[in-house]
Specification:
Oligomer: single chain
Strand order of the largest sheet: 15-27-26-25-16-23-24
Largest sheet: 7 strands, mixed
Structural class: alpha+beta
Length: about 800
């Protein structure tokens, strides 16, 4: 199949939006094919639905990119249009990201219908993951550049014609020449108003039809008033408005405004727009091996599990798979947090979303689409990009009433100045309308938040909840779990002690058969220790007792006795075992007898060490004024040793998930803002109960993570850097909000007093928005992950990290 013949239906349907009257086109119905829905959305969580059978799924969560919107009032217009469609259950629109999230019921509505509603409101929506979304963004940038170039050319020409009137002495410039210069300026302004200013007039007219006042309204009114007054002065030089024309002010205003908007678009693409670069990093097509051994380029929708693909240098791997031929280096920074290129050869696995850096390789497909980790990352980032932080929602609420006040002030200024000079009165009103556009106020929060989220994503920290940035900036206490968080995740069984008369391999296989049903680091260590013999056992039933261990019914395969028995693997108390070696971290295996009496079978001794960067991270947090605490389900002696090594004065051992949650709530009742750092496995209730939370995503499916931030790598220093960036983000948001408020409070009186001409008002408006984006761009700087860290603390040297009040240690599986 050729690439041309496999053109995605999404692009064909989205191309229908290019027409002047898109709703009349029938191509939109192509998006109504259930097979296409997974390309720009996912089935919403709903029991009993099969995600692999789109036609059987009722509720869908879709993401679309938007064109033609610039501000928060545009976002509110689109949200209202979507929510008015029967079957649309939820709509969230981000003006900064220019994206929308739509949750809709396939039994009541189809994508073509709610996309047509967006179009009817005066905007355009295209599937966010389609290549056309990138093309549209690039086309918008090109149009913005051409509008700016035209406005700049017109400004220079009009200023050339206006200069004689400014420089001439009374009697030097004949009336005929002055009229000719006015006519020339008028002619030059017409194409500028039609092409360069067209989006402002169309936006204002669109919102008038929707009975809504948007940020385009005051700008369009200011342009229209200036042009009309100057036109009357051109045609009737002896009339009321013939004393002076203002074409120079109009062209300068438009030039400054479009300069600011173009620079703003460029900066937003580099900062908040970095999220789009992550979301759309998969290639549109890939080379697939055919039956005759040749390779032909096809779209990703024609790739299936088991296919062999050829990935060229510079391309992203579109699937999870195994290299079957070739050797290369891969960049997996986004997915694993590992910034260095990793060598990948035949037999090694590669993951979707990582980049092939050096040589062509052939890869056999194992996972694709929504099954890959990259797809989970995309889902989290898309969800965050359309969220509205609390401060942003507050600014949106203020923007609407503020525009009404601006229109009222402009009318009041015109009425005041009219008896003195009607022309001056209208120009003062135009200046008031132009200078007070609240674009900067609406951009202040979302641009900064999305820029910070993009920076964190590039370093391996996913922001699931933008509101979490604000909560993290004000955190007073940061509570850490121990195993897999402060300590290294790679635990190992160092020794095994079996009861007399029990075969060691028999017990290792039994313990491994149980442990494979848990994702806890201790369970993985035990499962790895006995994997070679676990096939000797069949697990009939298993239950995980939170914070204690595993209880299962097992049966020996091919043994002398086929009678099932109940066994336990977990803490010493859970398994009813005797103490192990003093100072050792251990997990216990026991058999249940009559009346659930427990008979110890063996215990497995484990070791682990502190993360190399843990001490430095804890010290830095404390220096920043963040209190640190340790809550762990392990024994008192082990937790005390870890706390002492990290100089943590507040710690609590032998905590169940419930007691951890209670400890968090106690701190919150004291008026503290509490953050939680856990491994995302058995800390779900605690992560949800904290004011803000982190989870390490390597240990748990991202879709199940309940934290505000998900750390993809193993570097604990990312926690401290995220806290620092969150504080910086909130400082910048406050600077933007206060700066925008100060600008408006200062500029309105100046404009009403007639001290601010239209061109200066346009310059001030453009600069206010530009400064907001420039200030937010400071958050795009790379994180400094260069702290000096001590050597890893070995278990033998640092005293055993696990112990209980008795001379032994128990581990919670």
């Amino acid at each position: 199949m050729s690439e041309a013949s496999s053109q995605p239906i999404l692009s064909q349907a989205a191309a229908a939006f290019d027409a002047a009257d898109p709703p009349a086109h029938s191509d939109l119905h192509l998006l109504d094919d259930p097979a296409e829905w997974s390309a720009f959305g996912k089935p919403a969580s709903q029991p009993g639905n099969d995600a692999n059978a789109p036609a059987n799924v009722s509720i869908w969560d879709s993401q679309v990119a938007l064109e033609g919107m610039y501000c928060s009032t545009c976002a509110l217009t689109i949200e209202d249009a979507l929510r008015a469609v029967p079957g649309v259950q939820r709509a969230e629109v981000s003006a900064a990201a220019k994206r929308a999230r739509v949750v809709w019921d396939a039994r009541q509505v189809r994508p073509s219908q709610w996309m047509a509603a967006v179009q009817k409101a005066g905007y355009r929506a295209v599937p966010a993951r389609d290549a056309l979304a990138r093309e549209i963004r690039n086309a918008q940038n090109r149009k913005a550049l051409w509008r700016w170039l035209l406005a700049t050319f017109c400004m220079m020409q009009v200023m050339m014609y206006a200069w004689p009137a400014y420089d001439a002495q009374p009697g030097d410039l004949l009336m005929e020449y002055e009229r000719l210069l006015r006519w020339a300026s008028w002619v030059i302004c017409i194409p500028m108003l039609i092409f360069a200013c067209g989006p402002f007039f169309s936006g204002a007219w669109r919102d008038l039809k929707q009975r809504r006042i948007s940020m385009d309204m005051p700008v369009a009114l200011g342009m229209l008033i200036t042009f009309v007054v100057s036109t009357i002065g051109t045609f009737e030089p002896e009339g009321v408005f013939g004393k002076e024309v203002f074409y120079d002010s109009l062209t300068m205003f438009v030039c400054f405004l479009l300069t600011g908007r173009w620079l703003e678009i460029r900066l937003r693409d580099r900062t908040a727009g970095a999220l789009d670069a992550v979301l759309n990093r998969l290639p549109d097509s890939v080379e697939k091996q055919q039956s005759d051994g040749s390779f032909e380029r096809v779209t990703l929708r024609h790739v299936a599990v088991g296919d062999v693909l050829r990935i060229l240098p510079g391309e992203a791997f579109p699937v999870d798979g195994v290299i079957v031929q070739g050797r290369t280096n891969a960049d997996e920074a986004l997915l694993t947090g590992e910034s260095r290129p990793l060598s990948r050869a035949q037999g090694d696995r590669v993951i979707a979303g990582s980049y092939n850096l050096s040589a062509p390789v052939q890869v056999r497909v194992e996972l694709l689409g929504t099954q890959t980790k990259f797809a989970q990352i995309v889902d989290l980032m898309e969800s965050a990009s359309t969220q509205k932080p609390r401060l942003a929602m507050l600014a949106d609420k203020v923007a609407g009433p503020f525009l009404l006040v601006v229109v009222g002030l402009a009318i009041a200024a015109a009425v005041y100045w009219w008896p003195t000079d009607p022309g001056q009165a209208l120009m003062v009103a135009a200046a008031v309308l132009i200078v007070t556009c609240p674009c900067a106020l609406s951009l202040a929060t979302p641009v900064a938040m999305l820029t910070a989220a993009g920076t964190l994503a590039r370093h391996g920290v996913l922001v699931r909840n933008l509101q979490g940035l604000e909560a993290l900036a004000g955190v007073d206490q940061l509570v850490f779990d121990k195993t897999g968080t402060l300590t290294r995740d790679g635990m190992q069984v160092s020794a095994m002690q079996a009861q007399v008369g029990c075969e060691e391999q028999w017990l290792r296989g039994l313990a491994a058969a149980l442990a494979q049903h848990s994702r806890h680091p201790v369970s993985r260590a035990v499962a790895s220790y006995g994997r070679e013999w676990q096939a000797k056992w069949k697990v009939l039933a298993v239950e995980e007792v939170s914070g204690q261990g595993l209880r299962a019914q097992v049966q020996e395969v091919g043994g002398n006795s086929s009678v099932p028995m109940w066994v336990r693997l977990g803490s010493r108390a859970f398994a009813g075992a005797s103490p192990a070696t003093v100072g050792m971290q251990a997990v216990y295996l026991a058999k249940e007898g009559a009346s659930q009496t427990l008979h110890a079978l063996a215990h497995f001794e484990l070791n682990e060490g502190l993360r190399a960067e843990a001490a430095q991270v804890i010290s830095t947090l404390q220096q920043q004024g963040v209190g640190v605490r340790l809550l762990s389900g392990d024994g008192q002696h082990a937790v005390a040793r870890i706390a002492q090594a990290l100089q943590m004065t507040h710690y609590q051992a032998e905590c169940s998930p419930q007691s951890k949650l209670q400890a968090i709530r106690t701190l919150q009742q004291q008026g503290l803002h509490v953050g939680m750092v856990g491994d995302g496995l058995n800390d779900g209730p605690v992560l949800a109960g904290a004011n803000v939370s982190f989870a390490f995503g390597r240990a748990v499916p991202l879709a199940q993570a309940r934290a505000d931030f998900v750390v993809l790598g193993d570097n604990l220093e990312l926690i401290q850097q995220t806290v620092t960036l969150a504080r910086k983000t909130l400082r910048i948001v406050r600077q933007n909000l206060w700066g925008s408020a100060f600008y408006n409070l200062t500029s309105i009186p100046l404009a009403m007093m007639g001290w601010m001409p239209a061109w200066l008002a346009g310059l001030g408006m453009a600069l206010s928005s530009l400064l907001v984006v420039l200030n937010a761009a400071r958050l795009a700087r790379p994180l400094k992950l260069d702290a000096v860290v001590p050597e890893p603390v070995q278990a033998e040297e640092a005293a055993p990290p696990f112990a209980s009040p008795s001379p032994s240690t128990s581990v919670v599986v």
